[in-house]
Amino acid sequence: MSDALIVIGRDGVITRADDSDRNSVDHFRRAGRLLELSPSQYLVPGLIDTHIHAPQWPQMGTALDLPLEKWLFEYTFKLEARYSDAEFARRVYDDLVTTLLANGTTTGVYYGSIHLPATKILAQVCLDKGQRALIGRVAMDDPKQCPDNYRDGSAAIAIDETREFIRFVRSMRGNEVRLIEPVITPRFIPACTDELLRGLGKLTGETGCAVQTHCSESDWEHAYVLERMGKSDATAIRDFGLMNRRTVLAHGCHTTVSDRALIRNQGAAISHCPLSNALGSNAVLPVKSCLEEGVHVCLGTDIAGGLRASMFDAVAMAATVSKLLEDGVDATKAADSRGRAGSGISCVTAFYLATTAGGVALDLPIGLLKPGYRFDALLIDTAVPDTNLRLYDFDKSVDILQKIIWNTERQNIKKVWVNGRLVKG
After folding, report:
1. Which residue, of 312, 341, 362, is where some domain finishes?
2. Range list of H helices, 54-184
3. What domain range is 384 assigned to?
4. Based on C-alpha coordinates, what's the Rg of the chain?
5. pLDDT for 85-142, tens place per residue?
6. CA neighbours within 13 Å on the CB side: how many for 314?
7. CB atoms < 10 A from the CB of 97, how many?
8. H helix count then E strand count, the chain
9. Predicted structure pTM score
């Protein structure tokens, strides 16, 4: 809409979004309650990152040449063990949330660490800074796949501390509008005993919480679950009671058609993390096929398996890898047998995954600028000097949209609102 009036209620909900009329505009201007965009400025929905490992922020961009299982043991678990230090956690999480808001991430879906105090700090930081967040205290107790210095002492401890974190978030002062929500978070099946998975499934039923975990991310994880469980990752997650309408399954690159049918029937979602998948998942999620099958698909950075903090980068990568899947990459093969025909998605579809589809996946009224939705939004300025976002007077509306999607940088994001509250600018 090129000339619109968006009205936001005191509760942060959009009450009107339509063609502006002079009387209404004059009324809000006289009351000092009107923000008018300049010709170079555009308003877009806030970005929804559905897969973030908060403790991994300090290691982003390191050791990504390693296979997933080695990366976890040689780098990640050692770093995550440091979050027993509450001050270290506070310093890192403050920096992380500030940076993500500056990049336009209005909603973050976070894995914490196994440390309850540190994960409470993450929740408080998000609330204080005004970022919408779904946060989970990570549960992982299997000594066969977790290091001695970084795992839950027992399934019972992990379940009890998960229950305590849920209670803490739901009773946080200032969180009456549920800006912060708890998420039940078994790291992934290889890191959890059956006892823990069953217990968390029971807790899911008792609390009605959202769930997040990894699903068929890599050859190693996919094969490990098949061998241990005798069934696929998706089926096992369902059977443990961990798949519901608000379950977010990270990656899903190795899911089969039948796995995705199960995910669709349960109303769960796959968080597509194209950059980290390209580096460590041994496959590309066929996003277009998933959408055609009716599966909810959203988008994530997968910090720090993904090495970019901006969801605009995730959007660009989602469109790019889909084209690589469509065309193939091995030029020694004939063109008609090189790729997977019909797999490409446009940058507009990729942007949909980062906005509207994220709201659908989380079953929250976010990701759209329309009445009844929460006002989570970004003000993009295309006239900021020394950026890659350049417009010309002959650009059509569709050209402007594409340029914003492909070329927006942190400097172009001048203002960020979450739930009607200005949190940047």
Report:
1. 362
2. 68-71, 77-80, 86-102, 116-129, 155-170
3. 4-44+369-424
4. 21
5. 999 999 999 999 999 999 999 999 999 999 999 999 999 999 999 999 999 999 999 9
6. 34
7. 26
8. 17, 15
9. 0.97
